[in-house]
Design a protein that fits this description.
Layout (H helix, E strand, L loop, with lengths): L11 E6 L6 H12 L4 E7 L4 E6 L5 H11 L4 E2 L11 H26 L4 H22 L1 H12 L6 H20 L7 H25 L1 H8 L4 E5 L5 E5 L8 E4 L8 E6 L2 E4 L1 H4 L5 E3 L4 E2 L4 E2 L4 E7 L5 H10 L7 H30 L4 H14 L3 H20 L2 E3 L2 H7 L4 E4 L1 H5 L5 E2 L1 H5 L3 H11 L5 H12 L8 E6 L3 E6 L2 E6 L8 E6 L5 E6 L6 H10 L3 E5 L4 H11 L3 E2 L4 H13 L4 E4 L6 H6 L2 E5 L4 H6 L2 E3 L6 H35 L5 H20 L7
Parallel strand pairs: 15-22, 15-24, 22-23, 24-25, 25-26
Antiparallel strand pairs: 1-3, 1-4, 2-3, 5-6, 5-7, 7-13, 8-11, 8-13, 9-10, 9-12, 14-26, 16-21, 17-18, 18-19, 19-20, 20-21
Length: about 700
């Protein structure tokens, strides 16, 4: 590999699965190790899915990345498809956990007999039986730690599994030595308890990470595996989803899901989009409407021209958004990273000092080694490493179930501090879906309505689509038109029999409207109105109760903004350019406010990026989706106060987790150094601290209520 000419060559992105990552220390080691290599510009770990997204030059391929990760000490494999289900770490840990727990229970029963006063040959017999149970169990159940530690040591590095493995092996060796000499103490129970609790903690951690991805997995499992494609000669053939290309025509029968995004060419039907948008009501779609991969065709067969397939579908984009979740570092994650990085050398030094110190104080080698093992075990920083990621994963999973995707884990930290919210109008406070005036439609004669539907169905303009949808839902049948032509910026023009007809922009109107012209007939004006999002008033009141002051910051004209401002009771700034929006945010930030920007449009992109935290609806533009920290996929605006509440609850739990981890070490380490803690007690204390942090984080499972 050669040095990366970052500014000259376009970067490529490769996703690699690294099943062996399980903590903040692993994340830091993988990222630092890859970034240090030539040809690699960036590496971002997603611990939830155990994936690494690597940006690299064209001279680097997936085999180089796998080899580089092997050098760092991690097995890896290139991920073939963006929508491939991620690796789950739960299953490989279940058998070792079961073996460790079963052996620990049996050895503990024998230990109770020894503690109860067994002496002489009876005690020796119990120790030998314990050894026969414990040694093979430790050899098997400890493999996840031993393999990881050996890989690290073989490459001249250390990780959190090194002191754990050393502690377990020394405790087992001392116990076997004591058993062979007929001594009073053996620590088989402590070694097995340590493995049991460590494995239990890792299984719980892996299960929570899997649970956080359950929403995306549900989406991916609903993707159609292929589609019936209509050939140019009218023939039908089945194509796998991966083989679909833009321009192909899919025939989607009623009851089938779409394998790609596309535009309806023939037919009309209703589609269940609940998996993608959370909208429970079926959505009617007619000729010219855009339908998305993963949605279910409910009523009638339709022919769909593929516009986006494979990795470019909305479904794949949502999967990528979730993959981006929790990849960035918050201030608390950075603290945990640094602590985990310093852990291995610090704990090795501490244990060595304990052994040497007790030897100097006159203790025997056996006693000094027991104290050193207790120090190694009790200082395991699992609780510190779990403090932030577990809280963020549980909170993100809760928000995901509520229809809110967290793209950036650090966003929860920033969102928790906001005290000012700026909301765009169209598409944010309102649905951005113009609805034709019902009274105006009802006043149209049947023949005129049929012409209006026929004209509207030939255009993808939002007003035309809204008009076509409303007329079709009312049972209107489209008229036969000839010479249909859509003129950009003007409207749709055609001939109906001998009459020239047009659906066009009005010369003047007080609001959004379209005119229907039939030469020789009166002109029909059809007004349109946009609706506030459901629960908008309640959502704004919720933000106010959270201490977040809201106002409107819109690029629309003053007349259009005034109506929404009156309805919501918010102050408003209209006709704001993208630069104006950015300036407004900067002014507020300079005044000491923490700003939340909520917007959807292309013109909101700079403001979304400039704010302390940002949220976009799922219907936002590509720029808006990429710039926002969180994305909500439901129509309801209650996602805003729900997100702020969840973020504040998450940070409370993170601070509590740090306090628990620090308090544990402050109390436990001096006791271990003083020789007051046996390896068994150290194993129980260390594991209990990790479980306490996990249990505390689990309280966030309902943070998004």
């Amino acid at each position: 590999m050669t040095a990366l000419p970052r500014s000259a060559s376009p970067l490529e992105t490769t996703v690699v699965a690294v099943p062996g990552m399980h903590c903040a220390g692993c994340m830091s080691k993988v990222e630092r190790g890859l970034k240090a290599l030539p040809g690699i510009a960036d590496a971002r770990v997603n611990l939830s899915s155990r994936m690494v997204t690597v940006s690299h030059g064209p001279e680097v391929d997936s085999h180089d990345l796998v080899a580089a990760l092997a050098e760092i000490g991690f097995e890896a494999q290139a991920r073939r498809e963006a929508t491939t289900r991620p690796y789950s770490a739960v299953r490989p840990l279940l058998a070792p956990l079961a073996v460790a727990a079963f052996a620990a229970m049996n050895v503990m029963l024998l230990s109770v007999s020894v503690w109860a006063g067994a002496e002489g040959s009876t005690r020796s017999l119990f120790h030998w039986i314990s050894a026969l149970i414990a040694i093979p169990a430790i050899a098997y159940a400890g493999q996840p730690f031993f393999r990881s530690a050996w890989k690290a040591l073989r490459h001249g590095t250390t990780n959190m599994d090194v002191p754990i493995s050393i502690g377990v092996l020394i405790a087992t060796g001392l116990s076997l030595y004591e058993t062979m000499l007929g001594g009073a103490d053996a620590w088989f129970d402590g070694a097995l308890m340590l493995l049991t609790f460590l494995l239990a903690g890792r299984v719980m951690d892996a299960m929570m990470r899997d649970r956080a991805r359950r929403g995306v997995d549900a989406l991916l499992s609903q993707a159609a595996q292929g589609a019936m494609v209509v050939g140019t000669d009218g023939s039908l053939s089945w194509q796998e989803a991966d083989a679909l290309l833009p321009g192909m025509i899919m025939r989607v029968a009623a009851g089938e899901r779409l394998a790609a995004d596309g535009e309806i060419l023939r037919g009309s039907s209703r589609f269940d989009q609940s998996l993608l948008t959370g909208e429970s009501a079926p959505v009617a779609a007619h000729m010219g409407a855009i339908v998305m991969a993963g949605t279910l065709n409910l009523d009638a067969p339709v022919d769909v021209r593929v516009t986006h397939a494979g990795h470019d579908t909305t479904l794949a984009e949502i999967a990528r958004l979730m993959e981006a979740s929790a990849q960035n570092r918050s201030r608390y994650v950075r603290i945990a990273d640094r602590a985990a990085r310093l852990y291995a050398p610090a704990v090795h030094t501490l244990a060595a000092l304990a052994v040497v110190g007790w030897l100097i104080a006159g203790a025997g080698l056996y006693q000094a080694l027991v104290i050193g093992v207790a120090v190694l075990i009790i200082t395991c920083p699992c609780a510190l490493g779990l403090a932030v990621p577990v809280a963020q994963v549980v909170a993100s999973g809760s928000l995901m179930r509520a229809g809110i995707m967290v793209k950036d884990g650090s966003a929860l930290e920033r969102l928790a501090t906001v005290d000012r919210a700026l909301l765009d109008k169209t598409g944010t406070l309102t649905l951005g879906r113009p609805v034709p005036d019902a009274a105006a439609l009802a006043a149209l004669p049947a023949e005129v309505a049929a012409i209006a539907l026929a004209l509207a169905s030939h255009s993808r303009h939002p007003l035309s689509r809204a008009l076509a949808g409303a007329l079709a839902a009312a049972g209107v049948k489209a008229a036969e038109l000839q010479l249909v032509e859509e003129r950009p910026g003007e409207g749709v023009f055609a001939r109906w029999g001998t009459h020239h007809v047009a659906l066009r922009r009005p010369d003047s109107a007080s609001g959004t409207a379209a005119t229907l012209e039939i030469i020789g007939e009166p002109v029909w004006l059809i007004p349109f109105a946009d609706r506030l999002r459901p629960d908008a008033i309640d959502a704004l009141a919720g933000l106010q109760r959270l201490g977040v002051k809201c106002s409107i910051l819109s690029g629309d004209n003053a007349a259009a903004v005034a109506d929404v401002a009156r309805t919501t009771g918010l102050t408003a700034q209209a006709s704001a350019s993208p630069a104006d929006k950015q300036d407004a945010i900067n002014r507020l930030r300079k005044a000491g406010r923490r700003v939340l920007m909520v917007g959807d449009g292309l013109n909101d992109g700079p403001a979304l990026a400039a704010a302390d935290a940002s949220i976009a609806p799922g219907t936002a533009s590509e720029v808006g989706l990429q710039a926002a920290d969180l994305v909500f996929v439901q129509d309801s605006l209650l996602a805003l106060p729900r997100s702020v509440r969840a973020a504040r609850a998450t940070m409370r739990v993170v601070r509590q987790n740090f306090a628990l981890a620090i308090a544990y070490n402050a109390c436990a380490v001096p006791l271990a150094l003083a020789g007051l803690v046996t390896p068994l007690i150290a194993a129980i204390a260390m594991s209990a601290s990790s479980l306490l942090v996990i249990a505390n984080s689990l309280r966030l499972a309902r943070a998004a209520r």
